[in-house]
Amino acid sequence: SDAIIITSAVLVNESLLIAGEFSGELFLGDHSYQSQGSSDIIMASLASNGTWMWVETLGGAGNDKDVTLEYQNEHLFVKGSIFGQLNTSTGDTVGALEKNGHERIIGEISAEDGTWLFIAVDPFGDLGANPSLWCGWR
Question: What span, in angstroms and rounded, lies between the C-alpha atoms of 20 and 123?
C-alpha cells in the first residue's frame, strides 16, 4: 500500500521517531517491507536530513495495530496490540498462538538503532483477562 498510518511520534535528539501500522508492501528508502498479516506494526527513526536511520516491523498472521511510543528518562517504550504469536528481529517471541483475540504488548526499543531491549505481553493491558480493570471505566 506504500502508506503508514502513524499512531505515535516523538522527537529525540533531532530524529523523528514514528510508530504506526501498514498493510501490504511498503517502501522506505532502498528497502521494502511486507506485512505478514492484515496489518503489521512499524517503528522507524527519520534523521533531520531525511534519511531513515532504522526501521523495525513486528507482525504475524493477524491484525497488529495501535502502537504508541513513549520517551521517558532516555528510554523509548513501545505499546501495541498483537494477534497471535510474533517473532522480533532479535529472535524474541511474544504473544500466544492459542489466544483468540488481541493481546497488549509493552517493550523497550533503542532510539539509536531500533534494537529490542525487551518485549512482553503487558499483564495489565488485556482487559478481557483482567475484568477488575474495568471498574470505574466508562
Answer: 22
